[in-house]
Backbone:
């Protein structure tokens, strides 16, 4: 039954969701990345300065952002913004019987509503993550050179040397997984919402809390068990 | 399957047998037996919370009964078998209480929804179908580009009706189509249901607790109380049965409405 036209329709929803979850999150992600990058520069500068290792500012900011802060903060910000909105939208469809109506019309809400959202969320989060890393590193550089009087060239040189492929793929792997959690839990709690007046709020709440907890928990698991080569660590 | 086929007769669209459904300790249906005749307008009536909507949801396969069977044109409803469900649901159209239009789509895209999902029509063919569907519910094409939120309650119901009959179901079900509407709109919607039934030669099921309009439109009435069918038959018959509950519901309700006028 799924002809070209039907696939095309779902592709259109995918693009809408890609725009909503991704493009429209850019402002929030930009500000988060600036503040996180700036704070990281200040905080890591303290111990580095004590040991006279200011040249390691770039690597510590870069690695923390790439492996940890960018995927986790992107996940949490997008959970709060898009995950909540997805849950609320689908729960509203449940409460107002739009989901039942769709099924009655012979279209499976799983493939019409959920699949494009889950796919978009899963694909867009790693892209947001890369953007977060870049903005965060620039913010760290700005604080490092303007406030902490570090050498900007050294910052980039050391950062480029320290952050390698393993760090990037670990960060992006996390982002993919977190993107899947955000969109699929948003869909799950929305779809399984009750049908009373308060169901939409309850579903939205549950989706956001569950997503953030799952992100933090799985971040620990992934950090502890994702394979990496210890020789790549900067402090080696 | 064999049993369903053997008990199937051409003049029964939906056959419900021994239907029971409970939620926790609440026994909503306690053994419902009901035949919905082909090509007629059947009103299912009963007090609020007696399980009228639940019965429709089981007929649609949204909810499985605990016990009992539902056959639609001789085919056994099975809410767990998605392929079968999809197949049987082609016969069924439903109008939900508030229309349940897709908020994110225009009137046009709502009406064209199943056309686009299930057929491979050209743009102009789809346009033509949408226009004639809107016309059959008394709406002009100028409404097509509007969002559902820009429509009145009555208009929303018309659009939802156009959407529901787009794929030409054989059975159309209405969940409280007139509840909450003013008397004029109630008459309008009631007439629309009758006209659409005639135009598309539909088997029609209407859930209602409005005893006033029933007698002018219904060809068949089923009255539910305490999880059972307490009366089924022609409208006039409700005044002849010796059942205090039936009498109370129809006679008192009607008298009350009359007095209110
Ligand atoms: N999915 C459900 N879960 C729990 N209880 C339900 C569900 N659907 C219906 N009920 C209960 O079944 C009873 C009948 O509901 P319903 O069929 O909506 O009544 P009505 O006859 O007014 O349409 C109500 O008491 C309702 O609370
Ligand atoms: Mg109801």
Residues:
């Amino acid at each position: 039954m799924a002809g070209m036209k039907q696939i095309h329709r779902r592709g259109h929803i995918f693009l809408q969701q890609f725009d909503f979850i991704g493009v429209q999150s850019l402002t929030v992600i930009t500000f988060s990345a600036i503040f996180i990058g700036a704070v990281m520069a200040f905080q890591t500068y303290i111990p580095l300065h004590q040991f006279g290792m200011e040249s390691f500012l770039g690597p510590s900011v870069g690695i923390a952002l790439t492996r940890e802060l960018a995927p986790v903060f992107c996940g949490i910000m997008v959970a709060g913004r898009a995950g909540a909105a997805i849950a609320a939208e689908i729960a509203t469809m449940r409460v107002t019987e739009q989901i039942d109506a769709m099924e009655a019309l012979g279209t499976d809400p799983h493939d019409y509503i959920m699949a494009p959202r889950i796919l978009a969320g899963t694909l867009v989060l790693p892209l947001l993550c890369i953007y977060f890393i870049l903005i965060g590193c620039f913010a760290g550089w700005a604080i490092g050179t303007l406030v902490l009087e570090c050498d900007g060239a050294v910052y980039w040189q050391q950062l480029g040397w320290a952050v390698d492929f393993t760090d990037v793929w670990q960060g992006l792997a996390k982002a993919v997984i977190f993107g899947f959690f955000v969109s699929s839990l948003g869909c799950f709690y929305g779809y399984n919402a009750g049908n009373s007046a308060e169901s939409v709020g309850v579903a939205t709440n549950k989706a956001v809390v569950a997503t953030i907890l799952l992100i933090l928990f799985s971040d620990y698991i992934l950090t502890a068990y994702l394979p990496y080569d210890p020789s790549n660590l900067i402090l080696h | 399957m064999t049993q369903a086929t053997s008990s199937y007769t051409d003049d029964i669209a939906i056959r419900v047998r021994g239907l029971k459904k409970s939620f926790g300790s609440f026994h909503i249906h306690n053994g419902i037996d009901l035949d919905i005749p082909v090509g007629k307008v059947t009103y299912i009536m009963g007090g609020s919370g007696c399980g009228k909507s639940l019965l429709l949801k089981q007929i649609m396969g949204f909810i499985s009964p605990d016990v009992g069977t539902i056959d639609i044109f001789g085919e056994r409803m099975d809410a767990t078998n998605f392929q079968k469900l999809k197949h049987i649901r082609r016969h069924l159209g439903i109008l939900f209480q508030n229309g349940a239009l897709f908020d994110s789509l225009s009137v046009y895209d709502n009406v064209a929804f199943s056309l686009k999902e299930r057929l491979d029509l050209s743009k102009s063919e789809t346009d033509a179908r949408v226009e004639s569907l809107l016309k059959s519910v008394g709406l002009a094409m100028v409404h097509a580009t509007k969002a559902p939120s820009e429509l009145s309650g009555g208009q929303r119901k018309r659009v939802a009706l156009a959407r529901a009959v787009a794929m030409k179901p054989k059975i159309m079900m209405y969940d409280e189509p007139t509840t909450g509407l003013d008397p004029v709109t109630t008459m309008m919607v009631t007439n629309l249901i009758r006209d659409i039934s005639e135009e598309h030669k539909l088997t029609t099921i209407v859930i209602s607790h409005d005893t006033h309009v029933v007698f002018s439109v219904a060809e068949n009435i089923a009255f539910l109380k305490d999880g059972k069918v307490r009366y089924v038959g022609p409208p006039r018959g409700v005044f002849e049965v010796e059942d205090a509950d039936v009498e109370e519901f129809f006679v008192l309700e009607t008298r009350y409405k009359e007095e209110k006028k």
Chain A touches chain B through 20 residues (CB under 8 Å). Chain A has one domain: 8-227. Residues 56 and 158 of chain A are 7 Å apart (CA to CA).
